[in-house]
Design brief:
elongated, single chain, 11 helices, 35% helix, disordered C terminus, 313 residues, 6-stranded mixed β-sheet, 4-stranded antiparallel β-sheet, alpha/beta
Length: 313
């Protein structure tokens, strides 16, 4: 499939601060999760995709268009839900959506109908004549999503769409995001909450410190297996043996999580335990989660990423 977003050695710096560094992407159609801690470069990347920021290095295209060369052409096909609270406080939700639709070139009568339909879709039909300044955080997030999709874009960029929401509001927002594919809208969702991405995305891009850690189908990334082993003794010796065997080891408070890029991780653990003369309390297979992958690849700054559930120590 032709990528809807592609970049080659994309970079951006704010003075001496490098926000993106050699970012190479090929994002296919569908629903994409952009994962990273706060400050990883997610918002900077989205603003470059919209033509709001000009990259300081490399090249990017969106739907086959260079946003630096023709930002209007990109924005006519791409909706954007910003993270910040940017809604006009005195305007009603209906008037705001009608205005957003008219800005996209939809005639007034059609814009009114479209605004009504989209507000119903996001659950704001009853509140459509209330000023946006009276909305709760959850209602504001829905209104921002509504303006991003009111003109039926080919692609929508959602920057932290669940920010500030309670658990019920988060689940409702994720359900709305999941419905967008049914309307033929490609989605890129930026989040530092890994469980949100696991529940909505088909494709994942992991950013850390402006670098791409991983990119690929969610199913491929999380289906790889890790061996979890608990030991009675000789833990450090087993870790040393695993390191010499080329395994990747992450130590938790109770166990070791072991994977290997080429060898059978069970056999690798077995050989390391025998070499160290250790005793096994528990040995089991464990599927990767995005948390495992991110914490295994990211620098210590990756601690700003949330799982949406209890964190592994």
């Amino acid at each position: 499939m032709t990528p809807i977003i592609g970049s080659v050695d994309l970079g951006h710096a704010y003075g001496d601060v490098v926000a993106l560094h050699h970012v190479n992407l090929e994002v296919p159609p569908g629903t994409t999760g952009l994962v990273g801690a706060n400050g990883a470069g997610k918002t900077t990347l989205m603003k470059i995709l919209l033509g709001i920021l000009t990259p300081t290095a490399g090249h990017v295209d969106v739907m086959g268009i260079d946003p630096h060369v023709d930002p209007i052409a990109v924005r006519s096909r791409v909706g954007y839900m910003p993270e910040s609270d940017c809604l006009p406080q005195d305007q009603t939700a209906a008037d705001f959506l009608i205005y957003a639709a008219e800005l996209a070139g939809i005639p007034t009568r059609a814009a009114k109908q479209r605004a009504s339909d989209v507000l119903t879709l996001v659950g704001l039909h009853e509140e459509r004549f209330r000023p946006l300044g009276e909305f709760s955080t959850g209602m504001k997030q829905r209104a921002k999503l509504a303006q991003a999709i009111v003109f039926d874009p080919d692609l929508v960029l959602l920057d932290e769409p669940t920010a500030g929401l309670d658990p019920e509001g988060r689940e409702e927002m994720l359900a709305l995001i999941g419905r967008l594919a049914g309307f033929g809208i490609n989605v890129m969702t930026s989040s530092h909450v890994l469980s949100d991405i696991e529940s909505t995305a088909d494709w994942v891009v992991m950013l850390d410190g402006g670098h791409v850690l991983r990119e690929g189908p969610l199913s491929t990334l999380v289906d790889a297996h890790t061996v979890e082993v608990e030991l009675f003794d000789a833990i450090d010796e087993v870790i040393d043996a695993l390191d010499r065997a080329g395994a990747t080891v992450r130590r938790t408070s109770h166990s070791l999580l072991v994977s290997h890029p080429t060898a059978d991780p069970f056999a690798t653990v077995r050989d390391a335990v025998v070499a160290a003369g250790a005793s096994i309390r528990k040995l089991a297979s464990r599927s990767h989660t995005l948390e495992d992958l991110f914490l295994g690849d990211a620098a210590p700054s990756g601690a700003g990423v949330e799982t949406g559930r209890s964190r592994t120590p």
